[in-house]
Design goal:
This protein has about 775 residues and is of the alpha/beta class. It has 29 helices and twelve strands.
């Protein structure tokens, strides 16, 4: 096998200099291209070999960059359908397009490979005559791997300017007829891009697979117990009464991004996962997907069935939102939606003006039922916009601060008849930008939505003052305490410049801001950034979504500020929005609605810090301690107090692995860089709003984030002590690079993939059912 490998390598290098013969006339050499039948049963033969030997290599070496919406060239190697689909020159993420583009979602927007070819996707596997020679020479995937083998990276060096790792870099997305030119002009473009070549053994595994025709199989089907659970849940979600059908629609529109699983007594990092989907076929029949841009778009069928479809793609950390379902959860849903005392006399329209507005579409369901349902899985709902398609790139995320806590209004205090009437009477003012669909002109949108938001806030404040009119002021009793057991009551959101994370608990040092969400605010965030957001929409749709989120963030922050004494509320808000744009400043300062006086007694000269302490004390029984930054070993705690000059040089997310004393186990930590801002009201010029001297760093046990930018490996305590000591003195890029050379696992590290395997194995231990492959598209080159 080694001899054959080098023979092929030499042949490839010769062909690179002889492109007129080898790489431009594939139709003449191997015939016309036509799609191939590659899927077969995974129980035996080549398909079984794919699952056992090939898929693990693709997952750990390829899917870490090619897994989802933001995969280069839309090449999704995490499933047979994605591999067969191939590459596209069309970008999914494009904040400048004037017209919405056609979606390109696997399983939804084309039913087979032939349809993907008609949509412009080109293959990475050979689709001409199926001979061993053609299967290799006619494969973009094979030639990409071979190009890297012939042009290895410099060991432990910083890569030159010929490597572009920016998210919006130019992508060639070459087909086979274009590949020789790519190889000639960009010999460094082999795969894995900007990372070491796979091992000869791994290369031989993939080569043997492709030579034989690249047969593939889906992962093994769910267990009989899982199938039994699926049947029970589909029966529950598809009963005929109007009440059941409306409840199922509401549940689906909030859970459709979740990876649903059925927990067992035996803990595993790899349970079977399912997606809740809409189908025209009822339970018991093969699922027939309803493919619409949004989960509430008109299904164009008389009856929608809600089905659980086996998730057969490789699980990726950046999109993984696990949701455990069991008998207790089903009973809870029954109590909230079916057993609750209300009647459903009609099913709401799918017209955009209605379906995009949950206060219209689901007005018949009691507020308390809807709100409790969202609170029960609040982390999951927030993850929808953190890990859903909306949150890729800095412009989509610069609407939030780098670290903030989230708490919630108690549902018993947020679901009175007066609150329900408020939402009904102001449902037009609560309309969201998605009602205008995916092709929007953003002219005057800010003014329109600002006017509507102010009208709603004015009515909301008046109602709050009325309800508190008997001398009862705002106290911490207004906060939901998780029913005494639910850790979703307190969350922390971290922004990592162009990605983000949400976790349970109040994590890290005291944040600059806090959100307190009530039902209407929580619901609007979901329908704005998740259910209503179209990643394929035009610039107007994306801009309106970003602008509207400003108002929702301000409202959540205002709910927190209203717990403070009236005398300092404006001072706190002014500090949060220093140097803000005049239009936003006017909205904040001239239209701010401060509400009732606080009923909290403050005894210090720092009421805001005191209030944060009170929030922690009030929610202490349900605060998750998984990421307790004070629980790291004493020596590591110094990294929570790094000077700003050092922090400014850190990437957003760094993973630190320390080998345990036994030599087997590893301790994992995440070092998070929080970017400080004078304000976050600037859409495009964020850099000018950065308050660099206020940057902070937080070290927590375990893994936060899904896109590691730096990986540090400490083989023993001596190295850990030296690393901590040297990191505290880093004051320049040269200092940082010297530290990286000593302790870091750079992109060019000769054993990068071995350390990558260690990282993922440790992550499996820490994350369990939350585990998914990390994404390496943001690894730094320093």
């Amino acid at each position: 096998m080694q001899k054959r490998f080098w023979t092929l390598l030499i042949g490839f290098l010769l062909l690179c200099g002889c492109t007129a013969i080898g790489f431009s006339k594939y139709d003449d050499l191997f015939g016309k291209a036509q799609t191939q039948a590659r899927l077969s049963s995974g129980q035996y033969g080549l398909a079984a070999e794919y699952l056992k030997a090939v898929k693990p290599v693709l997952d750990t070496r390829c899917v870490v960059c090619h897994g989802c919406y933001d995969a280069p060239c839309q090449l999704k190697l995490s499933s047979p359908e994605g591999i067969d689909r191939g590459v596209s020159k069309t970008r999914v993420y494009d904040g400048t397009r004037l017209l919405a583009q056609q979606p390109s979602r696997l399983l939804y927007d084309a039913v087979d490979t032939k349809q993907w070819r008609e949509k412009g996707f080109t293959p990475v596997l050979n689709e001409r005559v199926q001979t061993e020679q053609a299967n290799l020479l006619g494969s973009v995937l094979y030639n990409s791997l071979l190009l890297k083998m012939g042009h290895p990276l410099p060991s432990q060096s910083i890569l030159g300017e010929e490597f572009d790792f920016s998210l919006d870099r130019t992508q060639r997305c070459a087909n086979m007829d274009e590949y020789s030119a790519l190889a000639r002009h960009q010999p460094h473009a082999g795969m894995p891009y900007g990372l070491p070549a796979i091992s000869p053994q791994e290369f031989n595994t993939l080569t043997s697979w492709m030579r034989k025709g690249a047969k593939m199989a889906h992962i093994l089907p769910p267990t009989e117990e899982d199938i039994k659970q699926v049947s029970q849940w589909e029966a529950f979600l598809n009963q005929d009464s109007l009440k059941h059908r409306l409840a199922a629609r509401y549940i689906y529109e909030h859970w459709y991004l979740a990876n649903i699983y059925f927990p067992t007594k035996v803990k595993t990092a790899s349970p079977s996962f399912f997606k809740l989907v809409r189908s025209t076929a009822p339970p018991g029949q093969e699922i027939k997907l309803i493919a619409t841009r949004r989960p509430y778009d008109d299904p164009q069928t008389g009856r929608v069935y809600y089905r659980l479809m086996h998730e057969r793609t490789t699980i990726l950390a950046k999109t993984h939102m696990p949701l455990a379902l069991d008998g207790k959860k089903m009973l809870r849903l029954y109590q909230q939606f079916i057993g609750a005392d209300y009647d459903v006399t009609y099913l709401p329209s799918y017209d955009a003006k209605v379906a995009s507005n949950p206060f219209k579409a689901f007005s018949q369901i009691p507020v308390k039922s809807k709100y409790q349902f969202m609170l029960d899985e609040a982390e999951l709902i927030i993850k929808g916009y953190i890990k859903g398609p909306v949150c890729r790139g800095q412009v989509a995320l610069n609407v939030i601060n780098d670290q903030f806590w989230v708490a919630f209004v108690d549902p018993d205090k947020n679901s009175s008849p007066e609150v329900s009437e408020l939402l009904l009477s102001h449902d037009d003012e609560l309309a969201l930008p998605a009602s205008e669909q995916s092709n929007v002109l953003p002219v005057s949108s800010w003014t329109k939505y600002a006017t509507q938001q102010h009208a709603y806030l004015k009515a909301k404040t008046a109602l709050a003052n009325k309800l508190l009119g008997d001398g009862e002021n705002l106290t911490l009793d207004l906060l939901w305490q998780g029913d005494g057991h639910n850790q979703n009551a307190a969350l922390t959101v971290f922004r990592h410049f162009d990605s983000a994370t949400v976790v349970k608990g109040f994590v890290g040092q005291k944040p600059k801001t806090v959100w307190v969400l009530d039902y209407a605010l929580f619901e609007r965030i979901h329908y704005l950034l998740v259910a209503g957001f179209d990643v394929y929409g035009n610039i107007g749709h994306q801009l309106n979504t970003r602008l509207y989120m400003d108002f929702l963030r301000l409202e959540g922050e205002q709910n927190f500020i209203n717990f403070l004494p009236k005398s300092i509320r404006k001072e706190v808000r002014d500090h949060w929005y220093r140097r803000s744009h005049v239009s936003l400043s006017e909205f904040i300062n001239r239209k701010a609605l401060w509400g009732a006086p606080t009923g909290i007694e403050f005894v210090t000269n720092s009421p805001k810090d005191e209030l944060l302490d009170k929030f922690q004390q009030h929610l202490a029984p349900v605060l998750s301690q998984e990421y307790d930054y004070s629980a790291v070993p004493e020596a590591f705690k110094a990294l929570n107090h790094l000077p700003a000059t050092t922090i400014n040089l850190l990437p957003q997310v760094s993973y630190i692995l320390q080998k345990g004393p036994t030599g087997q186990s590893h301790n994992a930590y995440t070092l998070i860089h929080h970017n400080a801002h004078y304000n976050i009201s600037s859409l495009l010029n964020e850099k000018s709003q950065r308050a660099y001297q206020e940057d902070r760093a937080t070290l927590v046990p375990g893994f936060i984030g899904d896109y590691p930018e730096a990986i540090w490996y400490l083989p023993n305590e001596v190295h850990a002590t030296e690393f901590i000591s040297q990191l505290q003195t880093v004051a320049s890029e040269a200092d940082y690079r010297a530290l990286k050379a000593q302790f870091g696992i750079r992109r060019t590290h000769p054993q990068f993939w071995q350390y990558s395997d260690i990282l993922h194995n440790v992550a499996k231990e820490y994350r369990g059912a939350e585990y998914g492959l990390f994404d390496y598209n943001r690894l730094e080159n320093r």
